Amino acid sequence: MSTTPSPVWFITGCSTGLGRALAGAVLQHGHRAVVTARNPAQVQDIVAGYPQTSIALQLDVASHAQIKLAVSAADKAFGCIDVLVNNAGYGYLAAVEEGEDQKFRDMFETNFFGLAALIRHVLPGMRARSSGHIINISSVGGLIGNPGAGYYNASKFAVEGLSEALAKEVEPLGIRVTVVEPGPFRTDWAGRSLKQVRNPIEAYASTSGARRAQISGYSGKQAGDPARAAQAIIRVAESAAPPMNLVLGKEGLKRVRDKLDKFAESLRQWESVTVGADFPEG
Fold first, then answer.
1. Is domain 8-250 annotated with CATH 3.40.50.720?
2. Predicted pLDDT of residue 188
3. What is the pTM of this model?
């Protein structure tokens, strides 16, 4: 009696944090995994115990050449990619006026343009099979802007918009899309991986500066557990009706609800002005 082969996951940014936790959990769950990192030596320990169901590949998502090679290698190893997880990304903190052009452009290459390029390379195979699931790791910062994080917020807001449009494009083709929005999690995001402005402006000390200090101060103390987040993502991927958006963590949920409440209240307060912008009826 034949059995359905286990799904193949392709996960970016697996050297640390959520990507590392997810890659390990996927393999422990009995699924197959393409485990990628800019330095594949950093993920060899993840795949070592699963020689038949995993491979480690070099992938800097800012390199379109490496994206093409990695997707080709995944197809050669396993024949398909069932679940694409765009996890690679990092933060850059600076007030908008403080922003260093090359710094935030580099961040966008990883957080947004690399993600979009990988989706474009994986979609043809998913379309041919009329199945697949694209999971884009955004952030609560993709729904809420905060002082000092404007450029990071912009990169994640872009992921949100792309994902929502993509979901409507590919749903009729049998492909699902989920955007995951973690709140504060105990990863390297607020620590080693975080990039910050080199020459802050004193005028923003109480806004952008205070926010940078707050983020650095809670690094390693966040309530979010990457291992539990990994299990949540697997649950979503196995669901027959996965959500379009998945906020992770109690603090993240509170922030999103507060934002939605304030937005709804603003719509109510300004409704007459809003509808008054149309041509008169009749």
1. yes
2. 59
3. 0.93
